[in-house]
Write a structure and sequence with these properties.
single chain; 318 residues; alpha/beta; 5-stranded mixed beta sheet; 3-stranded parallel beta sheet; 8 strands
């Protein structure tokens, strides 16, 4: 489990891991603290869980490097990768173990469900709705998944298979696409990728639009990294873009506005303010406004990375 400043979310995740139906003596939890400065280390040191808990510290290097450090420290035959803000259901580990029961090379994708209710903020509700549509789409594909639909926030594979392909590529030092890139290499190495609908983890998503906008901007930079590593792959395989031809407005948002932002550096903040204004006034088609805003920041990040490198200066890597 990689974590960056996850002190607030870790107790819920670790508490859920302590309530698993899978026997506690048959698993360990390795938490890799990626340069946190919020007291995460002190929190972990004070815990006395029912399972073996080990902590690995590293300077802030990003999720890919943190997971690789965890793989190097892991003792188990099967490794589960779990984000620090997820709460696995009681049968989560048992379902992952069952999915690997035949010993075949396999990557298993658990299902992440968002906690949504009447108090959920508009953007979190939008993101949950968007992810549910993604789950419905990959669920319709059948149990076997393409690499471009494989996320690793609730994922498992045999340690030897992950090591054989070199783990995560640490040139992904910002947000996004490191999971797709790993899945591509696993798939090419003959590892089957499979959805496990019964391995469920709950997500209390709490990001605001400005936070998600920065993630989208970094993800655009990650798209450039991906293309550099795999020039043979069509970008439409891994870029989060609708397949339908874009409207005039979407072409403006994707291709014109990012170029304008190079000349007028205040444009990104104006976009954030415009989206937040629409959010505060509960504008009609707010979901579409969110989508346009995130697409703008993705293409802005892609443009920045293709010309100047990733937009991560002065910001810790998550």
């Amino acid at each position: 489990m990689p974590t960056y400043n996850g002190r607030d979310s870790l107790p819920k995740t670790l508490g859920a891991l302590g309530r698993q139906t899978f026997p506690a003596e048959r698993y360990e939890v390795v938490v890799v603290v990626d340069g946190s400065e919020d007291g995460t280390l002190e929190l972990l040191a004070a815990l006395e869980p029912s399972f073996e808990l080990r902590t690995v510290w590293q300077e802030n290097r990003g999720r890919a490097a943190a997971i690789n450090a965890g793989l190097a420290a892991a003792h188990g035959e099967v490794v589960v990768l779990l984000d620090d803000d997820l709460e696995p259901a009681r049968t989560f580990l048992a379902e992952h173990a069952r999915a690997h029961g035949d010993g075949r090379p396999r990557g298993v994708v658990g299902v992440v469900r968002f906690r949504l209710d009447g108090s959920t903020p508009p953007f979190a509700r939008y993101w949950g709705w968007r992810f549910e549509h993604f789950l419905a789409r990959i669920g319709a594909l059948g149990p076997e998944l393409p690499w471009s639909s494989t996320y690793t926030g609730a994922f498992s594979a045999r340690l030897e298979d992950l090591v054989a392909v070199g783990g995560f590529d640490e040139s992904f030092d910002g947000y996004g696409l490191e999971d797709y890139e790993l899945a591509l290499r696993l798939s090419r190495a003959g590892v089957e990728l499979r959805l496990c609908p019964d391995a469920v983890a709950l997500h209390g998503y709490a990001k605001s639009f400005p936070q998600a906008a920065w993630d989208a901007r970094e993800r655009g930079g990650s798209a450039v990294t991906f293309k550099r590593l795999h020039p043979d792959v069509d970008p439409r395989e891994f870029e989060p873009i609708d397949a339908a031809p874009p409207s005039i407005l979407r072409r403006f948002v994707r291709y014109v506005l990012p170029e304008v932002s190079r000349v007028l550096p205040f444009v990104p903040q104006l976009v954030v303010q415009a989206v937040e204004t629409a959010e505060n006034h509960r504008a009609s088609r707010l979901d579409y406004i969110y989508t346009l805003g995130l697409e703008y920041f993705f293409f802005l990040g892609r443009l920045e990375a293709s010309r100047h490198g990733r937009p991560t200066a002065g910001r810790a890597r998550r």
